[in-house]
């Protein structure tokens, strides 16, 4: 992918005045007659757009893990709007929209070196939060069914509901065991009726992002408790991975023994599987090995795949189980009029394997960007992002004014993926470090907390990254923020 510096806006954020001005121009009520399309266009371009931040357009927006939009993805997204397909029912004689979705998901599996045949439940969601929700819904169905089976019963939560199902399975509770999980895991736990409190940290004291395997086993072994193990791949504050290969294999053994489900949240970790097999990436490869032992996987295409919002990825190994959970029942008008053609893969109607009925044609931007740039394009893009992140980490470590976090990363920059967590050593500066950095409007970082004190965080996730150009800006801004 060529870097087009002409599209890099000089300022990442609008000024406070520009935001206030844009906000003041929003209409308060619906106009009786409408202002007309021409005037609406002017209103959007001249009044509203100046109040937006340029997070997809700029390479120097390092907030959250925002991603960007590649030209091929942005082009396809406009087609999506134009053709306005509703990708919910597989209608092979009317449209190839579901074929495109199926193909886009298979190409994605290729990119991240998973065999699509082993991941029979593949779908696009609105984002990683929705994918985590789907993962917990599948996990819940499985672990209760498995607990029931082990006492000679059959039960389907999807039919009888959680209360009746846990009673039939002889369960007192369901726990979600994790380390440093993304906040959306707790939100999803609330939605699927397990509750936020069901999420329990099973962290090692010396490395909170990793599992304490002995404690994990003792929790999994608790009588009358079913478990979902949620692996953070990678963790959002530090970019560190919860497991390596040997942890993953051990966790799989434990989960098979105790009938637990493994869900991996790889919202942005996913793409590390596309990296070449070289020593500088060996820690990252270890970190994403857990995808091979997972029952279900969350990914985000609007993050490192750099398609426009909103597009998440979900994979699980059991499409039958998914269909039990998500089947949209008794809607004859939503059943394909003709069965699938006898040749080619079986394509599920998306409405029966995911949350939504009507759905945007999210697959087209994914398909477009994957075929436009290919495996090498994506590999190169991620390598540039990692190179920039590691250059920032190195710069921070080598100077006297900032501290790279956490300790484990200080010792070895090869732990750095696309996130760099740090703070200013001077406490007064550190208190408003994020405002100091973002106040330059040359870049944007997000703030967080680490060990009870404020910290700042670069998340590098835009296709336009150019290590040399961007390091010039980063080093200037890091120096300016100390003044
Ligand atoms: C971003 C992120 C999420 C939430 O993703 P959305 O696409 O914003 O819903 C979940 N988990 C991880 C690890 C993330 O980085």
What does this structure look like?
The chain has 2 domains: 86-360, Type I PLP-dependent aspartate aminotransferase-like (Major domain) (Aspartate Aminotransferase, domain 2, 3-Layer(aba) Sandwich); 375-480, Aspartate Aminotransferase, domain 1, CATH 3.90.1150. The chain is α/β, with parallel strands linked by helices and 483 residues long. Strand 3 (173-178), helix 8 and strand 4 form a beta-alpha-beta unit. The strands form 2 sheets. Strands 2-8-7-6-5-3-4 form a 7-stranded mixed beta sheet, sandwiched between helices. Strands 1-11-12-10-9 form a 5-stranded mixed beta sheet. It is globular, with a radius of gyration of 24 Å. Residues 1-8 have low confidence and may be disordered. It contains 17 helices and 12 strands. The structure holds pyridoxal-5'-phosphate. Pyridoxal-5'-phosphate binds next to helix 5. It comes from Acrodontium crateriforme. One of its GO terms (molecular function) is carboxy-lyase activity. Keywords: Lyase, Pyridoxal phosphate.
Named CATH topology of the largest domain: Aspartate Aminotransferase, domain 2
The shape, in one word, is globular
Within the largest sheet, what's the order of strands?
2-8-7-6-5-3-4
How many separate domains? 2
Main pleated-sheet profile: 7 strands, mixed
Number of strands: 12
Bound molecules: pyridoxal-5'-phosphate
- Overall radius of gyration: 24 Å
Pfam family, one: Pyridoxal_deC
Protein name: Alpha-methyldopa hypersensitive protein
Modified residues (N6-(pyridoxal phosphate)lysine): 303
Family: Belongs to the group II decarboxylase family.
